[in-house]
Design a protein that fits this description.
Strand order of the largest sheet: 1-2-3-4
CATH architecture: 2-Layer Sandwich
CATH class: Alpha Beta
Radius of gyration: 21 Å
Order of helices and strands: EEEEHH
Structural class: alpha+beta
Distance between the termini: 67 Å
Number of strands: 4
């Protein structure tokens, strides 16, 4: 987790980072955010589940804090991601149906 913010008002970016980098060093990819100061607990975290699963599949190890966040919030964000993907697919199908011409006029 990369610490951001100001004094007494920290928030964190959940990132994929090389273990040789410092905590706030160069990031490979941002995977989500965590803001402990948000009062509504369900709104404290944002995640990209597909990318988190990818990084874990190629051998990345999450910190203890990140594992706890993943355990508590991953299912919620997987459902949100699936709903967004279904909505995007539905819109793409609707757009593709509008583009198809009703008749093709040829020469002759």
């Amino acid at each position: 987790m990369k610490q951001m913010g100001r004094t007494h008002r920290h928030y964190y970016r959940i990132v994929a980072i090389d273990h040789r980098q410092p905590r706030d060093g160069k990031v490979i990819e941002e995977l989500g955010t965590y803001d402990p100061h948000v009062t509504e607990k369900s709104e404290r975290v944002t995640l990209l589940p597909s990318r988190i699963k990818y990084w874990k599949s190629v051998g990345a190890k999450a910190s203890e804090h990140c594992e706890a966040i993943f355990k508590n919030f991953m299912k919620k964000w997987e459902e949100i991601e699936a709903a967004n993907a279904a909505k995007a697919a539905e819109e793409a199908a609707k757009k593709a149906a509008e583009v198809v011409p009703s008749t093709i006029v040829g020469n002759g």
